[in-house]
Amino acid sequence: MGQSTYQSRAGQPAGEKAANIQPQENAKPRLMDQVRNVLRILYYSENTEEAYTDWILRYIKFHQKRHPAEMGEKEVTDFLTHLANKPEVFTPDEARAILSHMSGVTGLMASLLYVSVR
After folding, report:
1. Selected residue with higher pLDDT from 30 and 8
2. Does this model's pTM top 0.70?
3. For residue range 19-73, what is the model confidence (pLDDT) as tens digits?
């Protein structure tokens, strides 16, 4: 059998273009790729991975896209204070009022999630 004569769309023999690409030496994976890799190594579910990465991105965006390695306790406190003071967070009375109007599967799920409110 002879050598493969397959051609890429660019007209180069297949694999030649890929062979010309040199990996960056000591290229460190980006932060979110590192986070996802650790979560997958620990066998976290896809939903958990999505939730964790979403919160990390919210934290980063809140601090004008600064890298978390540049931030410390003050920035964490500022972010948590911001979350605690957001108007979307309901008081126990507000949560009770909302839950009292829910029924069916949605009402059941909400009451299970917020059982401490009732």
Report:
1. 30
2. no
3. 455 556 678 899 999 999 999 999 999 999 998 999 999 999 999 999 999 998 8
CATH hierarchy code of domain 28-86: 1.10.150.130
> Which sign, positive or negative, has the C-alpha torsion 93, 96, 98, 79?
positive
How far apart are alpha carbons 5 and 32 in whole angstroms? Answer: 40
Place of tokens 């911001």: 82
User: Residue 73, exposed/middle/buried by CB under 10 A (0-12, 13-18, 19+)?
Assistant: exposed
- Domain layout of the chain by residue ranges: 28-86, 87-118
Interatomic CA distance for residues 104 and 112, integer angstroms:
12
SS3 86: coil
